[in-house]
């Protein structure tokens, strides 16, 4: 049962859940547009500040692509199913070495069993709260590329191990650490490398390394971890949809650098998972008007959410 049905009418949910091909196209174009402008900004004004800003913005939009693939996994990115599948796979997932189909299988299991023993994401959230020192070490590993390199190597090894082995693929589909990663890496790797090559062709030879691989190995890993912690870290291990997940309020800077495309409204997403991301603020308002505001697990900002996890 959709948890939101206990508090909202069928008509309210129907209106909120309406998809839009136009809005889906705008979100994907916006994501790739920010990436393009970030590279162009450095090309026009090459200095350390614009380089750092480009890496951070592109890493945040790589998370944005993951979020839009997540939308497609819920059939919420586009109204037209064929477009939803194609764009979610090839313009959102594959460029970041992800795979829509395997992610969908894994992620819907997470929704069905959120914060219970059957939740495949429980292994991630159960680690929190932890110590400040532990979180600091994790963040340093992310920003220095250690996490990204380790996971990329693990993904390559996994792809070799899974080749032609259906049983191993099924087991890998329950691996929280590799939840959205492509099992058949060799379909995604050409797309990932193609983006890097295009950057190098239109700019300097090293642009692909600096503005696609480097953000992927560093800032993307950091904000992906922050997202995971904020959503379920240090929340109740229960079946209460108002307490076993967290929404984090985000201002313009947080939305630009850490929480693109309304990903911060995670409690609302769990209440009605097929509502498109751009309608989640409206869903939040409806839940508050339904008298749930005081019961909802909402952090005032990402610093607050991380503090609850031990920062």
3D structure, described in words:
- The protein has helices at 10-16, 21-44, 48-73, 81-93, 100-112, 122-125, 132-143, 146-162, 166-172, 185-202, 207-217, 219-232, 252-257, 266-271, 280-292, 302-309, and strands at 247-248, 298-299.
- By secondary structure, it is mainly alpha-helical.
- It has one domain.
- The chain has a two-stranded parallel ribbon.
- Helix 2 runs antiparallel to helix 3, helix 3 crosses helix 11 and helix 3 (48-73) crosses helix 12 (219-232).
- Residues 166-175 have low confidence and may be disordered.
Chain-wise SSE layout:
Blueprint: H1 10-16, H2 21-44, H3 48-73, H4 81-93, H5 100-112, H6 122-125, H7 132-143, H8 146-162, H9 166-172, H10 185-202, H11 207-217, H12 219-232, E1 247-248, H13 252-257, H14 266-271, H15 280-292, E2 298-299, H16 302-309
Parallel strand pairs: 1-2
Helix pairs in contact: 2-3, 3-4, 3-5, 3-11, 3-12, 10-11
Task: Label this structure with key terms.
311 residues, two-stranded parallel sheet, globular
Share of helix, binned = 55-70%
Unreliable segments (pLDDT under 50, ≥5 consecutive)? 166-175
Secondary-structure content class:
mainly alpha
- H/E element order: HHHHHHHHHHHHEHHHEH
Q: Percent of residues in beta strands? A: under 5%
How many domains would you count in the coordinates?
A: 1
The quaternary structure here is: single chain
Query: How is the biggest beta sheet arranged?
Result: 2 strands, parallel
| Count of alpha and pi helical runs | 16
Choose one word for the global shape.
globular
Count of beta strands? 2
As laid out across the biggest beta sheet, the strand order is 1-2
The Cα radius of gyration reads: 19 Å
Query: Please, what is the average pLDDT?
Result: 92
Distance between the termini: 35 Å
């Amino acid at each position: 049962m959709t948890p939101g049905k206990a508090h909202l009418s069928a008509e309210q949910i129907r209106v909120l859940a309406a998809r839009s091909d136009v809005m889906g196209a705008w979100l994907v174009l916006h994501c790739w547009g920010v990436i393009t402008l970030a590279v162009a900004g450095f090309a026009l004004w090459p200095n350390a500040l614009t380089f750092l800003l480009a890496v951070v913005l592109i890493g945040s939009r790589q998370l944005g692509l993951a979020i839009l693939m997540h939308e497609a996994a819920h059939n919420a990115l586009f109204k037209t199913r064929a477009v939803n599948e194609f764009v979610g796979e090839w313009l959102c997932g594959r460029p970041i070495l992800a795979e829509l189909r395997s992610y969908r299988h894994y992620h819907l299991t997470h929704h069905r069993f959120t914060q219970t023993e059957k939740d495949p994401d429980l292994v991630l959230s159960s680690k929190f709260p932890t110590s400040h020192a532990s979180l600091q070490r994790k963040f340093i590993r992310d920003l220095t590329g250690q996490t990204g390199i380790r996971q990329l190597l693990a993904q390559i090894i996994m792809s070799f191990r899974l080749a032609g082995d259906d049983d191993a693929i099924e087991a890998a589909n329950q691996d929280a650490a590799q939840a959205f990663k492509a099992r058949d890496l060799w379909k995604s790797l050409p797309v990932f490398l193609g983006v890097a090559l295009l950057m190098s062709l239109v700019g300097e030879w090293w642009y692909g390394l600096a503005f696609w691989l480097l953000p992927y190995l560093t800032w993307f890993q950091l904000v992906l971890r922050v997202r995971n912690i904020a959503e379920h870290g240090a929340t109740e291990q229960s079946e209460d949809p108002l307490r076993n997940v967290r929404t984090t309020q985000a201002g313009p800077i947080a939305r630009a650098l850490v929480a693109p495309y309304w990903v911060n409204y995670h409690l609302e997403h769990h209440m009605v998972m097929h509502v498109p991301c751009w309608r989640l603020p409206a869903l939040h308002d409806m839940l508050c008007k339904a008298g749930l505001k005081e019961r909802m697990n909402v952090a005032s900002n990402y610093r607050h959410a991380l503090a609850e996890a031990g920062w």
